[in-house]
């Protein structure tokens, strides 16, 4: 490994000194409407004498391009990008060793798109780049005042189920980037804290290139924050409140929904300072109806249940970013973040247990009891990061960055079995507690330079993460007894992960029609798991893997494009999935992990076509996902009224699917964006030391429809529908889930102030929206639970913006702790 790292570091410095001064052309490509940089725009350099192609390039994430080692002469530039009008920069005369900076090249939107922007202030809902799909958040009015999670529900390849489980093309688990910076947080936790009002775009990378971390079985979601002024002050303030619940299911507490967030950006000359703060409380009423039966010998036990299942969520955060550019070629950035989150999940359930003799049919016993179940999860997250970038005279760049994070997670699960909801007569009391200090850091270096008709990138990264958890299992079976510790179910779990990686990638534009990227990433990873209880056990794991990637984009003409891509990914295990110490999650469930769990390895491949017309755009993509070591949470019988739920490698799986999207504006006052995803899923393998075979499949589809109506210049009505069909799991199935929503927006003061009234999870008393049934079964058990979440939620949001254009706000986010939360 040291040899490989040494070779990469040597390459950094040898490449920077390989070529001397030469004739150079450089510049930046931006969107003419909002001056946002356009990544992967095609820049072709032609000789003026005969119009032959001298060189080609694609712009980077900041819209920059450059051509080096050019001969003296006269040239012109042709700049193209899908959805925009081409631009020509002519009369470029180069002298030997000369440098010409053409400055900013602003691309106007295509006529159809430009008309749309002028009439309604809207941009296209989606546009495509070489390795990603980019979605404009401002088109999804129903998400205003919400979070990034609310935006994702509208994207064609994304589904969000009743428990906020996020899937991209049917697969859960993906890497999250904030302005291109890895944050490795659990998707649900991280995205539910990012205010939608502060987001400009969401990018979906379904076949990421080698320069990105290999984490995430479903690919990468990159969030870019909203822009402010190039020079001056930008302020965005949002406030949101919920009306009283129309149906709170007679839960113990009435839901409270309110929050606020603010972002301040100050930019002057070489300094750029960004400050952000947010607070929210988002409660949700709910009900749970379930049925479980088990078979042990001649005993058949059935225990249907019914009762409350509600959630309370509170969070606050403060962020600061300071950027300083001492010279035109140097950039420093310091980021600080501190936040806290507390979640409660209440499940107060009445059980009716009946046991019969299977051979005689005689009743053995019957009992009714009340289970008061409360789960608390709490976390504080503190971190800092420092980044430095230098651009050499030959336009090559080197970037180094470091991040340190310190978190504290804690919580409990309390199970109290009583004779009934009004009784204090304890039948059984179980208490699980945990304390988990987390430490993590990341060191990274990247080098990039123009080479031939493209750009070469190489890099090295070191990551370390430790989680030292103390877990206690306490129980008492009769009133008056003290809580007694179960030593076999209590102990300390120490997890240490170390990952070193190197990569190389080359991106080039062969001609104005064809561009591609190809790369390879190597990772050396170790995982050390130590369990300290009555005995001490260690479970070391060492992995060495290659992660190749390739992407291709071919332009037939200004309207039609072809895309193809391949990427190998890894879904790493969390500490929760590895922890073998059982936790009494419910009265009916004992949950634990598997210390021998292997990470999933996934191969992603796709090919698709894109059409962009004056009033519409359409894309269709065929894709394949091959998954090795699928991790599933499966059940077995622990006792007649308790199921043992465990994380395990259930075998291998594959998905073959088709994703389509339509962005249409047939008339000036109506805009329709629709996305759909259809895939065939199959899983095969075995469970419990090959005693149970796994062979399940299903055809799954999802549809997201977003329709906007311009009622008047300052009035907009938007309706959305998110639908997910039934899908198979290793031991059963999850039912369909759908959620209709509507919102009305009114603008004031030239758009600086806006008010939005939202109607979420529309039911009107007869639609079975916002509920989902989850079922699993085996040879000796069957369980099904219908989760019914709050419907007909009414929210009011107010947004005020002082200045509306400018700079991306790049905030630090939790790198390690959010994932484990």
UniProtKB/TrEMBL annotation:
SUPFAM superfamilies assigned: Carboxypeptidase regulatory domain-like (SSF49464), Porins (SSF56935)
InterPro entries per record: Beta-barrel_TonB_sf, CarboxyPept-like_regulatory, OMP_b-brl_3, Plug_dom, Plug_dom_sf, TonB-dep_rcpt-like
Membership in a protein family: Belongs to the TonB-dependent receptor family.
Organism classification: Bacteria, Pseudomonadati, Bacteroidota, Cytophagia, Cytophagales
Keyword Hydrolase among UniProt keywords: no
Principal location listed in the UniProt entry: membrane
Superkingdom in the source lineage: Bacteria
Domain (Outer membrane protein beta-barrel) ranges: 391-800
Keyword Transport: yes
Cellular component terms per the entry's GO annotation: cell outer membrane
Domain TonB-dependent receptor plug: 133-219
Protein keywords: Cell outer membrane, Membrane, Receptor, Transmembrane, Transmembrane beta strand, Transport
Listed name of the protein: Outer membrane receptor protein involved in Fe transport
PROSITE patterns assigned to the protein according to its UniProt record, in alphabetical order: TONB_DEPENDENT_REC_3
PANTHER family named in the record: PLUG DOMAIN-CONTAINING PROTEIN, TONB-DEPENDENT RECEPTOR-LIKE BETA-BARREL DOMAIN-CONTAINING PROTEIN
Membrane topology (UniProt): Multi-pass membrane protein
Cellular localisation: Cell outer membrane
